[in-house]
Amino acid sequence: MAIFLTKESKVLVQGMTGGEGMKHTRRMLAAGTDVVGGVNPRKAGRTVDFDDRAVPVFGSVREGMAATGADVTVVFVPPAFAKAAVTEAADAGIGLAVVITEGIPVHDSVAFHAYAATKGTRVIGPNCPGLITPGQSNAGIIPADITKPGRIGLVSKSGTLTYQLMYELRDIGFSTCVGIGGDPVVGTTHIDCLAAFQDDPDTELVVLIGEIGGDAEERAAAYVRDHVTKPVVAYIAGFTAPEGRTMGHAGAIVSGSSGTAQAKKEALEAAGVRVGGTPTETARLVLTRWESERVAAQG
């Protein structure tokens, strides 16, 4: 099983004919993703050859959906055009928009998230690596060859830490890994993913990766306490970050005691979540919990 993305998903790529779009479309196809088309009004009617597959280019998301039945779009357009791209996808009625683009103005993100919500379109991102259901489909830039299908769900603000935990836990494997992005405003949240993993019968344990800044992890902790029965293990990036300085992601800024790694760790531990001090220690905590769950199930 999986959340949000399966082998049945049909994917459009907005910005497929650009440099990044071309590179990552090829990688998505190699991972088994059913990429059914690209979107570029200036190149509509053409096809792009990716090894053994010719992918058509459509003039709009609506046209691509009508021709192919696409239900997912991956957005690789430049920041200045991202708002229009997501709005177009939402107007077309697509179910899932994965916004890889970084550097989008916050007011644009606020606007397209609010608009997409009125149209029933789930947005993942922006400034995110996307999501992958190993062995089924990959929508974004996550490397597909560093893990395997399994029963761990992962939700993360950080792309790099997503990849590290996927690799360190590759012997167990993952149901779905979701990179939600680290901007101050994102579409799909930790809580959205926790709820979906809780409902997924084939996800047995969840890894949550957060970072300093904001209160998303504290809110996730409250949700785990009240609604999640599956084991959750977490890591918070930024224990050594200097106060008051943005670190990496635009949302990773601490003001006073609010948003510190220690405050997030304490909130999560109070909700019964084990929190690792490093990514590798977090992976060890997952392995320990996984093994204990297996022993308990056997006897």
Summed up, what is this model?
The protein is of the alpha/beta class. It is 37% helix and 23% strand.
What does this structure look like?
The protein is of the alpha/beta class. The protein has helices at residues 19-30, 61-68, 79-92, 106-119, 159-168, 190-199, 216-227, 261-270, 279-298; strands at residues 10-14, 34-39, 47-50, 53-58, 72-75, 96-99, 122-124, 130-133, 137-140, 149-156, 174-179, 205-211, 232-237, 274-276. The mean pLDDT is 93. The protein has a 7-stranded mixed β-sheet with strand order 3-4-2-1-5-6-7, sandwiched between helices. The chain is built from 9 helices and 14 strands.
Helix percentage range: 25-40%
Report the total helices.
Answer: 9
Would you count the extended β strands for me?
14
Distance between the termini: 26 Å
Q: Would you list the SSEs in sequence order as H and E?
A: EHEEEHEHEHEEEEHEHEHEHEH
Shape: globular
Radius of gyration, whole Å: 19 Å
Largest sheet: 7 strands, mixed
Binned strand content: 15-25%
What is the residue-mean pLDDT, rounded to a whole number? 93
> Which class do the helix and strand fractions yield?
alpha/beta
Order of the strands making up the biggest sheet: 3-4-2-1-5-6-7
Spans of 5+ residues with little confidence (pLDDT < 50)? none
